[in-house]
TrEMBL record:
Coiled coil: none annotated. It is an enzyme of class 1 (oxidoreductase). The keyword Metal-binding does not apply. Belongs to the FMO family. InterPro entries: FAD/NAD-bd_sf, Flavin_mOase, Flavin_mOase-like, FMO-like. The keyword Oxidoreductase applies. Its EC number is 1.-.-.-. This is Flavin-containing monooxygenase. Keywords: FAD, Flavoprotein, Monooxygenase, NADP, Oxidoreductase. It comes from Prunus avium (Cherry). It holds the Pfam family FMO-like. GO terms for molecular function: flavin adenine dinucleotide binding; N,N-dimethylaniline monooxygenase activity; NADP binding.
Length: 518
């Protein structure tokens, strides 16, 4: 075939991209800045477990080993599973470890020429005879650099690592005035388990955030320090963090991850009939949400702690903000070794701790751990050298990242992104995208015009804004995964209906094994 494909990153997405491009006859080179595969799973905090049930976080053609029986395997089991996938499909020989791609640059067409295009890359094809991507790769051990020139780049650089989201503070109100220490959850995760315990032991810790990293770290601090040094969790927004996936005994997947549940919401690009149906069924949509909310409220006793969220569960799942609550988390709140403190607008630092807006006294603190998430958008933007491409990929600050099928930017040729937009099972989602991309590279189908792609992106943006509220920038397809997969299947010429019989098609949840074969 002769076309050179570079994959940047050897986490789950990069490995999948490698496997599926190989299946189409390409010989990809995978650049991985770390010394091993697995991305985020290579180093996590001690208590990390998969929070997606194992059966939906699996490679479609490579089941979990029978030795793993837990529904939510721990991080070591997940990493072993990902590694055994790479060994099984003999992917390691394609990976260059300790190699960091420092900046990618497109050569071959002027910006004016690219602006004037109506088709992706000018022809709608994934490759071009004159356009190439050039980049510098640094060997992190020898510090030597090498230049590579390739025909296609697949960015699998991950979204939840490397670039932390650090809140901004006015001058004299930031960490510089604080006598204690401030770290990000990423730094805490980088420590070995004993060091992490020693680091927090005997300290008044404040954890900022109320998603998965914050919950787990607060729990670990409470395990180490107990009542003697309670851990404060400073949060902006209450969330529908889930105790389990069986609200009132009904599998959550039956309420949100089957075709029937998708009939209840308005879908990007739907026709009049589906739109009408979603409107007629909206009371049911509301009832499903209330059903789950009532269960979580009761099971965790949220009302007692003033922790009932203002937004709906539908918004939470539509934003992929489903964090599992560590077991006994609210018991710790009850006993007082975890203190929940709301800071609705902003907080700042003083010498001895943290000041919450509107309060006169400070929260006395020795150590602040910012579990405030990541700037995956910035990481993606910064890998481009061209400011024009940086602007294209970042899109408007008031919209979701403008990726067609969540993979391709209409105005950035010969390049795909895998693993930015989220779902509730990211391995499955990355695999679907890699299969779609491999078919595109193999010439099975062509992309529509740039205008059509942009229109489609706008429709998904409208969907995100309608159902994810202020979290639309998370670009979550979680609650519309089947509708999304249908589009990929149609592009690839696959039958989107994967179940046997109408009832199963409507009510059985979909997952990776539904797509084992084309
Ligand atoms: C602690 C944690 C737990 C999670 N749990 C779940 C879960 O339960 N369920 C779920 O669905 N999702 C979960 N996620 C989301 C998770 O991000 C995905 O499931 C998935 O593992 C991401 O894989 P990835 O390959 O896209 O990205 P990553 O795993 O982030 O891999 C990116 C790789 O790219 C490399 N890289 C980056 N930049 C460069 C560069 N310039 N040059 C060379 N290499 C580069 C990195 O070193 C890394 O190895 C979790 C995330 C975290 C952080
Ligand atoms: N499987 C696991 O066990 C596991 C463990 C860790 C992480 N993860 C995954 O990794 C990803 C990242 O998770 P994460 O918890 O690190 O980040 P996250 O999901 O992005 O959550 C960030 C948290 O920080 C808060 N926050 C952001 N900016 C803030 C500010 N300026 N002031 C106060 N609070 C602020 C947010 O509050 P608002 O909501 O109010 O904005 C939110 O509670 C997620 O996909 C998560 O599921 C999984």
């Amino acid at each position: 075939m002769g076309k050179k494909v570079a994959i940047i990153g050897a986490g789950a997405s990069g490995l999948l991209a490698c496997k599926y491009t190989l299946s189409k006859g390409f010989q990809p080179i995978v650049f991985e800045s770390a010394s091993t595969i697995g991305g985020v799973w290579t180093k996590t905090i001690e208590t990390t477990k998969l929070q997606t049930p194992r059966e939906v976080y699996q490679f479609s053609d490579f089941p979990w080993p029978s030795s793993v029986t837990e529904d939510f395997p721990n991080q070591h089991q997940v990493l072993d599973y990902i590694k055994s996938y790479a060994h099984h499909f003999d992917l390691l020989k394609h990976i260059k470890f300790n190699t960091e791609v420092c900046g990618i640059e497109y050569e071959g067409s002027s910006e004016d020429e690219m602006q004037a295009r109506s088709l992706w890359g000018g022809s709608g094809e994934p490759f071009s005879s004159k356009g190439k991507w050039k980049f510098v790769v640094e060997d992190k051990q020898s510090l030597s650099t090498e230049i590579y020139v390739v025909d296609f780049v697949i960015l699998c650089i991950g979204r939840f690592s490397d670039v932390p989201n650090i809140p901004e503070f006015p001058s004299n109100k930031g960490p510089e005035v604080f006598d204690g220490e401030v770290i990000h959850s990423m730094d805490y995760a980088a420590m070995d388990y004993d060091s992490a315990r020693r680091f927090v032991r005997g300290k008044q810790v404040t954890v900022v955030g109320f998603q998965k990293s914050a919950l787990d770290i607060a729990m670990e601090c409470s395990n180490t320090n107990g009542l003697e040094h309670p851990c404060t969790v400073l949060y902006k927004t209450e969330h529908w963090n889930v105790p389990d996936y069986l609200p009132w005994g009904v599998p959550l997947a039956c309420l949100y991850l089957n075709r029937f549940s998708e009939l209840l919401v308005h879908k990007p690009g739907e026709g009049i009939l589906l739109s009408l149906l979603a409107t007629i069924l909206s009371p049911l949509r509301w009832a499903f949400s209330k059903f789950v909310e009532s269960y979580i409220t009761k099971k965790l006793g949220l009302a007692k702690y003033g922790m009932v969220p203002k937004h709906s569960f539908l918004q939470e799942i539509s934003s992929c903000l489903i964090s599992t609550v560590p077991e006994k988390f609210y018991d710790r709140v009850q006993e007082g070794s975890i203190i929940l403190k709301k800071s609705p607008s902003s907080f700042s630092f003083c010498q001895e701790g943290i000041l919450v807006e509107g309060e006169s006294s400070h929260v006395k603190t020795d150590l602040v751990i910012l579990a405030t998430g990541y700037r995956g958008d910035k990481k993606l933007k910064d890998i481009f050298v061209s400011p024009t491409f940086q602007d294209y990929i970042a899109g408007s600050p008031n919209a979701t990242l403008p990726l067609y099928r969540e993979c391709i930017h209409g105005r950035i040729p010969q390049l795909a992104v895998i693993g930015f937009s989220e779902s509730v099972s990211n391995l499955y989602t990355s695999e679907m995208r890699c299969r779609w991309l491999a078919e595109l590279l193999g010439g099975t189908f062509k992309l529509p015009s740039i205008k059509e792609m942009e229109k489609d992106v706008e429709k998904w943006d409208e969907y995100a804004k309608r159902y994810s509220g202020k979290y639309y920038r998370r670009s979550c397809i979680g609650a519309l995964h089947i509708w999304y997969n249908d589009q990929l299947c149609k592009d690839m010429g696959w039958n989107p209906r994967r179940k046997k019989g109408l009832l199963a098609e409507l009510f059985e949840p979909y997952g990776p094994t539904d797509y084992v074969s084309s």
